Amino acid sequence: CIEELNSLSAVQNSFDVQLKKGIRAVMGFISKDERRKIISSVCHVNRVIYDVTQTVGKDVPFLISPVVDIGEEKVDPLRDRRVAEFMRKQDMEHCCVEPWSFGQEGEEEHKLKSAIGIATNSSGQFIVGDINDLKVFDSSGQFVKDISIPNDDVETKLYIHDVATDNNDYIYVLVRYEKGTGSKELVVYEFSNTADLHHKFAVRREDWYSYTRLTVNNSKVLLSGRLLLSGSLSLSWSRVAVYETDGRFVRSFGGETLVDAGDITAVNDGRVMVVKGRGSCVHIFSEDGDLLGSFKLQGHYINPSIAFHQASEHVVIAGTEESRTGHCLLRVEIFTKDAEFVRSTQIPEVGNYYTSRMTVTKDGRVAVLLRNEFLRYYKSKVLVI
């Protein structure tokens, strides 16, 4: 019923004119008052049905919640920033679904400080890499426990680079060693689903990058990275390295075609997607590393994050852009695994927080790890959409 309501021509026209404004708002076939009533009523009904489904225990995930198709884009009437601003002027902001956050509540030692990796498991828990240990939160954002990264050498400092989980809820952590002698090393830790250390292996020196991200698929560990030239944002090398979970090197690819590699995800058919670190493009590779193509994003982001949702077979990209006020806007874009555009939603301003990593829960909730890099010490939180 909601899909039918949202697809009515009067509804689509009202949202189209209101969001684009300008001369079209003056020349619209529907009066300003009538347009206001239509949008307000549609958002109200969408919110009532959303609340009913929540009450009876049937969560409608963000990935598939009904939208209003206005031609060039598909608008989420419950979460879109522009719709929220309009509803706020009508004193009806209660009809919008606000994202909620966690990571800065409770006891001081439970708060996120400089988190840089996030993953989820089949229980809906969130596993966050925070400097040199893992913090586990339940599906409601309540702190559960810490998982320490074993370190046999007191003179060696450990720093987490990224976190991932597999279908068996094993946890993989990419860690940078900094030894007292000045030498450095990248190591992948594999923990069981009960958080026991199962295995660890060193990453080959030639697969070392200034900026490295991690994903796991089909018993393979995949690392994407780029090497930054000293004192410059110019890029000298980017590629993907593939390892067996026991540490055996399989292959590397992308060196010839991959520029400015950012986050990485693996699709259930074996294909690999790498989002550009500074730009608006996603590259698609075969399981063997052949470049199959690429697709454009609507936004232009700094270090966006990408994830694949198994149940819906959707690819999700989250990134931050600067608004006119100088604050950051978070945008979430969704595509099919065949690169067909599904929807894009602007989330209200997130202040001076920038996207660090992102994960999608089994039931389709998008959890974005944000970092505030303007503070003397980084401050992190997780925003759940």
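The above is record 1. Record 2 follows with the same two-line structure.
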Amino acid sequence: GGLVMPKIKWIGLIKEEKMKDYQVGELSKNAKKMNMPTTSKEMMIKALPFIIPALVILFLSVYFKSGEFFLLRLYIIIGVLLGFLALIIHELLHAIVYPKNANVYIGIAKPITFVALASYPLKKEKFILMCLLPYILGIIPLILFWIMPITDMKIHSILFGLSAMGLGSPYPDLFNVYQVLKQTPKNCKIQFYKDDTYYIE
């Protein structure tokens, strides 16, 4: 019965080096450390190629919709700002995949990175779902952008900004999924622990 939700706690503004303090669960003795970036700065840089598919999709969406760029800059910015506010929903979408006995801490790492921090072993498929679920924040506005007739430029521009933010912001999560697929065996669990990512066979 009902939605099985983890214990989600809002931690507010934290320093990046404090992030690892919230990722301390029980780590299995058999856990093997994955080869991953340890700081979010290194992560953001290493994962950058993973933003390319989102940019291509957005560019082609506008191009095929009209053959030219017809969007209104101001309203794109409004869409991006709304997308920025939706980052809190992005983190909640990560969080809800965890089971009810997990703790997930949601906050903002300075200067402005929204984070969902948890240390709990998830089955590989569930971990991938947890990483990719926030993409729906980009997919839904993009579908609306595709199917709506071009009568209202403002709405189209806002939808474009929203989908740009929704498809662009999870690129480090996509990088995580790629690394998990590349580095881990089939039936394993994946767990964040402090600054690192582990897999447990």
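Helices lie at 40-46, 52-66, 73-85, 87-95, 124-132, 136-147, 153-168, 171-183.
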